[in-house]
Amino acid sequence: MNKNMTSVALACALLAGCATPAPAPTPNPVDPTHRKLLTLDAHLDTPVHFGRAGWDFGVRHDPTTEIAQLDLPRMADGSLDGGFFVIYTEQGPLTADGFAAARRHALARSALIDTTLARHADRIGVATSAHDARRLDAAGKLVAFKSIENSYPLGESVTALAQFQGQGVRLVGVVHSLNNQFADSSTDMPRWNGLSPLGRDWVAEMNRLGMMIDASHASDAVVDQLLDLSRAPLLLSHTSSRTSFDHPRNLDDARIRRIAAAGGAVCASTIYLGDMRMSPRRGELFDQIDHIGAMTPAQQTALGKEWLALEAATPMWSTSFDQYMASLKHLIDVAGIDHVCMGADFDGGGGFPGLADVSLLPRITARLKGGGMSDEDLGKLWSGNLLRVLDAAAKAAQ
């Protein structure tokens, strides 16, 4: 959508993503190296938009009028070949009713991902293994894995992990921003001092099933215990270094080294690399975005207008592209190039001016290549390390 659209068309397109697609922008030149790499992001929260009335994953949406940061055309612009599409569940009460409601939500979100991908099966394919990802890439298709952020919907048993595995989930985060029945969160007061007894069962079941353990959002004590207990290496799907920005959501360098020594990988995030300007009103809007699929088009439009106005006045993150690149390079220096991957957290709070949506990802490759990084190491960073950890989880189960 361009700025010359009629007012009627613009009102329709502001957030609801109606039938009139944005015209393709003049493409920015993308380095051939980035085009030839298999590029995967470990944490894509875009399924929050899949259920929106009138919103089409296959249509280009204008970032100046649309809050979603990823769609199939912009994946092409940024040469992002795919990644893990997230089943996120907001933390609720640790009660039978709370668990049941969370399970219904997670299963519905999983089904919504399936139906959305099926609608675009000519352009993007479902993957459950590293082999699938490489096969789809060789066939010229984008790659879609599924993951769970927050194990809260599992309830008070780990048996539901097998159910979600059967639906294609291969990566599961143990906790989110508040403590749950399995573990303490990095941003909550300790309840279990790490994993709960049920959380220890969760680790064993994840290993038995061959699913990747995602330690993003977990407290330091949980990370330590996951490292001690897991037979398979850990993945942190969207985490930054605490040295780059001192926040409990980030991980200290000593633990990053331990994760690398155990064969795991940390996927560089765009969040918590600077101050978060989360005013009370912005916090209310942020919480509403997870329920945007239940809103009317008019409500979606109003939400989008207000969010984008706040972003234009004061971006939520006080982060620059140079800060992000310095953080990424620090992570590589600490963990080693064999243990870093990419997880920007698009559509989940990630992005900042200069890396505001998926179309701008080639800037990262260009900066790293300009600094002397080899094509081989770029391949490790963009997908090789992530797929290696996925393979290692499957082999540990065997």
Summed up, what is this model?
Helices cover 42% and strands 11% of the residues. The chain is of the alpha/beta class and 398 residues long.
Q: What do these coordinates show?
A:
The chain is an alpha/beta fold. It has one domain (34-277, 315-397): TIM Barrel. Helices cover 42% and strands 11% of the residues. It contains 15 helices and nine strands. The protein has helices at residues 7-13, 32-36, 47-50, 72-77, 96-119, 130-138, 160-166, 197-209, 220-229, 253-261, 280-289, 297-313, 321-335, 362-370, 375-397, and strands at residues 40-44, 82-88, 124-126, 142-149, 169-173, 212-214, 234-239, 265-268, 340-342. Strands 1, 2, 3, 4, 5, 6, 7, 8 and 9 form a nine-stranded parallel β-sheet that branches. Helix 6 links the parallel strand 3 and strand 4 (142-149). The chain is globular and about 50 Å long. It starts with 6 loop residues before the first helix and ends with a helix. 48% of the residues are buried. Residues 1-27 have low confidence and may be disordered.
